[in-house]
Amino acid sequence: MRPRQLYLFYLFLLMLSPAAMAQVYTRHLASGNVNDFNKAGASGVTAALPRRTLKAVDTQALLTEDEQRTKLGLPDRMGVDIDVQADFMQIAAVTTEGNLQIARFQFDVPSAQGLSVLFNALTLASGAQLFIYNTDQTVLIGPVTEKQNGTKFWSDLVTGEHVVVELKEPLAVAGQSIVQVGKLIQYYRFVPKFGFNTSSSCEINTACYPAYQNEADGVAMLLTYYSPYTYACTGSMLNATQQNFRSFLLTAFHCFDFSGDGSLQTAERNAAASTQVRFHWESPVCSPTAADNVYLTLTGSTLQAAYASSDFTLLEINQQVPPSENITYLGWDRNNSNYSAVFGIHHPSADIKKISFSNNATSFIGTVMTTGGNYYTSPGATHLNVTWNASPNTLGVTEGGSSGSALFNADRRVVGQLHGGGSFCTSPTSPDQYGRIYTSWTGGGSPATRLSDWLNPAGSTATTTNSVKSQVSGPAAFVSTATFSLNSGSSITSWVVTGGNGVITPTSGAGNVASLTATGTATGATITFYINAGQSYPISFTKNINASAGENFPPIASTIPARTATVGSPFSYTVPAFTDPEGLPITYSAAGLPSGLSFNAATRVINGTPTASGTFVSSITGTDQGNLATSVAFLFTVNCPVTSINASAATVCL
């Protein structure tokens, strides 16, 4: 029996720095929509660019080889590298647009289904932004910023035969960036979108089961470079007993055992530094399958612990996952138990996120590794044996790329990670094996071979944790006093208040709860909670707040004179702003507007084209952040245009 194959790109990359803090978004856009590019910060292609056409690799020969590799159970290749070695600033077309210098260059690889760019050196000047996109302008990667300086950054793929690299620098630092392009990757399989619709037909999008989205938000796709290949696996973010929001991610031992010898060499452990973690790679709808429009990739992790017997690896991403991503830190169960029903969430064949279900009871089983990374089952209890549902319909299985994915029990806690097995859509009852959290908890008896030191550093007796999303609780605005809290462990948390003109006290404290008092009016203040749990990177959570002292009073409305409009003619009117006695922000709403008109609460503008005549009583309401409201009514008359006819008591506009 073989481990679930690690799907790979055939790459030749230089090792990424372990300190890499790459955080880059990939966007899928409507074809040729320059406005979408501009909103993301890129300029897009507006004229012919200098270009270099590179000779494509003979993909037919590669595909023939891939057939043999598949029969031999070897990992599937997705792409092959092409040497470039170019100083971007020496070959790019450079223009000045406003206060920016913009450099662009295009690479072409005929017959390529997709392309990625590998940089030998990347040192961006302060304020500079780098973008990578295709000439169809349907895929945009970036911005890449100075935060990636010092790394051997490599991009996600863009579809098609053409890729454009664009560098935007403020004029004050123009020409100071260093951008060296080392190679391109020519993709010849699993395109148009990397991993999109590559899995088998019985796999189910997680969007088909929205009740499981909370668990799906904790699962990510992994790409790891180990010369000369890049491998795909699945990983899952884990909670800790301290609820410290460290970026722990569980995957499989064999995802890093590239030599298949059952041990991790130094170079294999260091490969974690190149690992890209892709969040929210999922279909937004159940059917038809679609790629998410925007997803985040974080590059650079540290391998904290691994144990071959239960096939687990615990990575720690070298930075905090941005709170805006709303990821779930998954709960786990380390009890010595079997389970009557389980489910798994994974990225089969590097596809978008899928979910699989089993209503069959698990059983304990062991595994024995053989040369080359294969294994066979044996009596033992290091793993859980799982048989997926086969009737009345197959509800998902696992595939290559699913390796390392979490198995959940009925309480939705992680109880293991995928080692391998024989399930396929055509044979769903062939069981899969998951290394047990129970076994991995004590592992090989050392911090480098067990989970307990990392997920339970304070030595709690808890055998389970629940899934959690980070949350700063407390009002957006308060009068006199308010309490704020972070759902973290108190002993590892502190907080600081900034801004607010010094009228909010106290301004700092220890613990995960802050009781604040306002002695005056403060707008634009923030409270930030900090976590110190022994991690090597900062973890913080911020909430914007406004405050005032004393009693809260409702907003004071401005007079709105009667308004007149005409059917069929455009109308626009800006409602005068209300005043809040405490100086707190006000939100606006409208009611009773004539048909055809709408109200923009952010700009306070009523606009549109009336579609029916008559006299209407309309109103505008202003609500402060203490939830007190004031409304003002006004008459709104909509007249017919000059040409009209009278019919009984009604006026019909022509």
Automatic annotation (TrEMBL):
Short name of any one Pfam family annotated for the protein: He_PIG
Q: Which residues form the Dystroglycan-type cadherin-like domain?
A: 555-645
InterPro entries, A to Z: Cadg, Cadherin-like_sf, Ig-like_fold, Peptidase_S1_PA, Peptidase_S1_PA_chymotrypsin
Tell me yes or no: is Metal-binding among this UniProt entry's keywords: no
Q: Name one GO molecular function term.
A: calcium ion binding
> A Gene Ontology CC term for this entry?
membrane
> Which SUPFAM superfamilies does the record associate with it?
Cadherin-like, Trypsin-like serine proteases
Keywords on record:
Signal
User: PANTHER family per the record?
Assistant: LYSYL ENDOPEPTIDASE (PTHR36234)
Query: What is the protein named?
Result: Dystroglycan-type cadherin-like domain-containing protein
Which species? Answer: Arsenicibacter rosenii
